[in-house]
Design goal:
Helix 1 packs across helix 2, helix 2 packs antiparallel against helix 3 and helix 3 runs antiparallel to helix 4. The protein is α+β, with helices and mostly antiparallel strands. The chain has seven helices and seven strands, in the order βααββααβαβαβαβ. It is 34% helix and 24% strand. The longest helix has 16 residues. It is globular. It has a single domain, classed as Aminopeptidase (3-Layer(aba) Sandwich). Keywords: Acyltransferase, Transferase.
């Protein structure tokens, strides 16, 4: 059975477990900074914001994560010293420049909108409904009326899952340097409780792009 719990509600430190899943899920992108998984865990372990991170457990083991951030609370607080300590001065500085605007910037959404990001499942638990369980928990239990997420065109499995959950595409954006990055489009999707979205259209033109950490 999959059990969902907010990271902040644990009575013991689970940052290492969350970092394990995060690195496992995004290793392809994170390996640009270093291929050493231990260093990657050390770099991001203290950056997660527990109030907006939700974790999935199977048989007492954390196997999935999902963040639902908002205009007051980011998913991660990017910290230059942590990145420099893990990656070294040059690569740590580059990582900070890459991630600072992506995660430390305030989301341009109203109080009734949640932004879903940092969705990851450990390799051994994929295909078992972990991410779907996390989504359903957040969509049912959190007080937001609207949910927004971003996915790239090459991530067809995630795109289909989001469609199955009821998310609709509202915009596609061509990606610059697509050959280097490995995808052509960023796809923006939304879901509203009750099935009717009254989000203002001009809101969608102001987005935070999570350069490396796309779903």
């Amino acid at each position: 059975m999959i059990q969902i719990k907010r990271m902040a509600d644990y009575d013991h430190d689970i940052r290492d477990d969350v970092a394990d899943v995060f690195v496992d899920g995004y290793y392809r992108n994170l390996s640009f900074f270093t291929k050493d998984r231990t260093k990657l865990k050390a770099a991001f372990c203290n950056l997660f914001c527990p109030d907006v991170f939700y974790v999935a457990e199977v048989d007492g083991e954390i196997v999935g994560i999902l963040a639902c951030s908002n205009n007051r609370q980011p998913a991660m607080a990017i910290d230059k010293p942590s990145l420099k300590e893990a990656f070294g001065f040059l690569m740590g500085s580059m990582a900070y420049l890459t991630l600072d605007k992506e995660f430390n910037a305030v989301l341009p959404y109203e109080d009734d909108t949640g932004y879903i990001e940092c969705v990851a499942t450990s390799e051994r638990a994929r295909g078992k409904g972990v991410s779907t369980a996390l989504f359903k928990h957040v969509m049912q239990e959190l007080p937001y009326r609207h949910y927004i997420l971003e996915v790239v065109d090459t991530n067809v499995v995630a795109l289909q899952m989001y469609k199955n959950l009821g998310f609709d595409i509202y915009e596609r954006k061509q990606e610059k340097l697509s050959r280097i990055k490995g995808f052509k489009e960023r796809i923006y999707m939304k879901w509203s409780k009750g099935g009717v979205s009254d989000l203002p259209v001009d809101l969608f033109s102001c987005k935070r792009l999570h350069g490396l950490f796309y779903s």
